[in-house]
Input
Amino acid sequence: MRIAVLTIGNELLSGKTINTNANWLSKKLSSIGSVITLHITIPDEQASIINNLDLLFSTQIDLIICTGGLGVTDDDITRDVIFSYFGSNEVFDKDYWAFLENKFLKFGYSLPDSNKSQAVSPDNGKVFSNPLGSARGLIYEKNNITLMVLPGVPSEMKAMFDSTISPWVEEKIDSKIFQINIRTTGIPESILFEKVKNIDLEENYHNIGYYPSVYGVDVRIAGEDLEKIEKLKDDIRANIDEYIYEIGDQNLEEVLIKKLKKKKMTISCAESCTGGLIGHRLTQVPGGSEVFNGGMITYSNESKINQLGITLKNIEDFGAVSEQVALEMAENIKNKFGTSIGVSTTGIAGPGGGSKSKPVGLVYVGYCDDKSLKVKRFNFSSSRESNKIRTSQAVLNYVFKMI
Amino acid sequence: MRIAVLTIGNELLSGKTINTNANWLSKKLSSIGSVITLHITIPDEQASIINNLDLLFSTQIDLIICTGGLGVTDDDITRDVIFSYFGSNEVFDKDYWAFLENKFLKFGYSLPDSNKSQAVSPDNGKVFSNPLGSARGLIYEKNNITLMVLPGVPSEMKAMFDSTISPWVEEKIDSKIFQINIRTTGIPESILFEKVKNIDLEENYHNIGYYPSVYGVDVRIAGEDLEKIEKLKDDIRANIDEYIYEIGDQNLEEVLIKKLKKKKMTISCAESCTGGLIGHRLTQVPGGSEVFNGGMITYSNESKINQLGITLKNIEDFGAVSEQVALEMAENIKNKFGTSIGVSTTGIAGPGGGSKSKPVGLVYVGYCDDKSLKVKRFNFSSSRESNKIRTSQAVLNYVFKMI
Output
């Protein structure tokens, strides 16, 4: 299936907003075996929308996915332009209006008249639901090409794609492409590549993709023959097993929480340089409260000493960023919260605060359970944001491998 | 000046790489007063490049900036296709070849023959230099439209834009466009719109853009007359001042940390439903340690009682998600950490755990300083992720407005 993505929004063209929607949609659509032929981004302008719809409806594609401009403010013109493009008559949907009224009431607002446009359906097209917001999607057909229109708010767009568009595309695709995703962390892409490239399966060679991010590298293998790619996966796994935390699409906090639940273990964390990010990630997983009791963010030395009971002498002798303090933090948080595991982070997140002996990016991670008390040292980069993420990933992976 | 950006690359369409080039170019070009009319992204395919050049050379624009496909591997076809599109004869540039030879020698390599394509100039177009790499840029003219072609490697593209394209555009631009961004939170887009739309400045009306996200709504005003848009900003401000936290592009944690620093105040937080996100956000700001001492993540009732000293009776009588517990959490964290301000969150993040009287999305936020102890109740949505973000935004905004 050949698909074009049309994103509408002045904010995309002015550079105010990066076009993550086109990227997200393309990644999702490629992964289910469709081919993206074109991205077009245009302003919220009638002539531009019409010209580009004309253009797209005259190309060799099967589906146009269009996002943006379904809101209620006067720069949101997509719905009106598309209605007029297809000569649609407006049908006011009383039930949906009542639903919106109720929803707004719950938040303590009365529904403004400007929302009326969102309760209108076309007489010659279809609408589809938005699980997170008030702007529903639109579906039209022309020249054997389907047009699906979604709001531009990423969370809403994604939810609508997953519930409506993805199943629709998957059903229509003739040659199914199977994909297996292998998630790794703690190894650079080029080293990983060296370890994987010699696996002797030439016919599958070009079906291996490497997708690095600050969380780690995903290795994605794809092909029409499920048996062959399963075999390839096993071969790759044998070479890089120690870096793998997931075969599939779950993230590290999800697989860790599952493993902890299965082993009936609980965890608490004492965070300095990560500042709460580990707790935030663990509580992104629904039901995480069964294993995550909580923790402390001890950002200042004072709070490390007074709240977490870190020895003043250790801080004085070795500094707050040291093996000794990381170990004490992990042990003390475990004891305070009475959990099976205690973890800790202390480091120089940057951009300031570094020195020759303790440069920005230096991080110690502590781990304590009933049997062991350990510490690991990392040297990350100079970016604060990536140091925090890499540290949180190192901690979660540490626990995942230890239990 | 009207500009289209044409990005070429299979990796952009498959979703493997996010199109940061189009975004970066647009931001830079907007900031010097040009108008981006279109982004097009196409694969490394001859027919697609030719069709889209035909299309762009027939539109009402002044400049096409094209990136990608100038490298030396066999999927880099842009240079060849453009030479054939313009019927260019290849002129081998001996001086540039000698320059490249020297450059490679310096790094200890002999120059591979595959680099020959990069030492070729067109007889009917121009080349321009690449301060960071070996692929030079190309310049052509057709139908009064200029085409500038750059490599896709972001660092090279940026250096070439700054040294050649930016000065070229600035010289040709007649009217500069000014922009002011107004950042709000705690008010839905449609309600905000109702409050802004009646401001009686018709001539500026269409220069107001609304950019909603889960963090709030940005209102962006733009125009050629700085005085007029300043006046418009003041008028808008008068109508929605209570929801504004920033005139500019800083986020809420940045402006809050600055304000706290200025007032020499410190803050600590007791997080239940946000699970560490508030701490994470405050520690994203470099130098935040001056005002943020730390906090506790008390996710379980046990940790609320044992670590934070919440009264068991309050939890039994009112539940952990209650006004009483939020107030106690804020007061206790302030006292424990000895900060000027203590804040707290307790709520039902979802998707599970809701009931009729306490549905998913119910959140209490506590605030305590030396003079006041207050609590606010919110009803957010059914998505765990957005509930956490909205709660953290509500807390930061609460503090920002109180101090």
The mean pLDDT of chain B is 92. Chain B touches chain A through 92 residues (CB under 8 Å). The CA atoms of residues 100 and 134 of chain B lie 7 Å apart. Chain B has three domains: 2-172, 178-247, 252-402.
